[in-house]
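Saturday, quiet lab. Running sequence design on the C-alpha cells for the scaffold JK sent over.
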C-alpha cells in the first residue's frame, strides 16, 4: 500500500507529506510498526506570510476553521 507523497524538509529528521485519508494512513502506520517513526502531526493548511502583515494573514488563514472550533467548545475572542 502506498502511504502518500513524502518529501524531505530543511529540518533534521522531518519529512512532509500529502495523504488521501488520515484515518487510513494512521491505521496502516500502526500495522507496520515503524520503529524509526516518533510522531505524526496532521496539518490541514499551511501558508506563507510576510512580517509586516502577519496578523492579517493569520486571521485570513484561520477563518475557515472558526465554525469548527466553535462547535468544539473553544471560545474565540
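Result came back. Writing it out in full:
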Amino acid at each position: 500500500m502506498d502511504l502518500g507523497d513524502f518529501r524531505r524538509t530543511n529540518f533534521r529528521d522531518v519529512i512532509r507529506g500529502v495523504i488521501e485519508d488520515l484515518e487510513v494512513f494512521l491505521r496502516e502506520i500502526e500495522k507496520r510498526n515503524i520503529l524509526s517513526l516518533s510522531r505524526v502531526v496532521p496539518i490541514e493548511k499551511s501558508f506563507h506570510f510576510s512580517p509586516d502583515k502577519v496578523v492579517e494573514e493569520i486571521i485570513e488563514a484561520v477563518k475557515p476553521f472558526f465554525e469548527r472550533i466553535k462547535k468544539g467548545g473553544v471560545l474565540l475572542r
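Notes for JK: Residues 13 and 37 are 9 Å apart (CA to CA). DSSP finds three helices and two strands in the chain. Ask whether to fix the surface positions before the next round.
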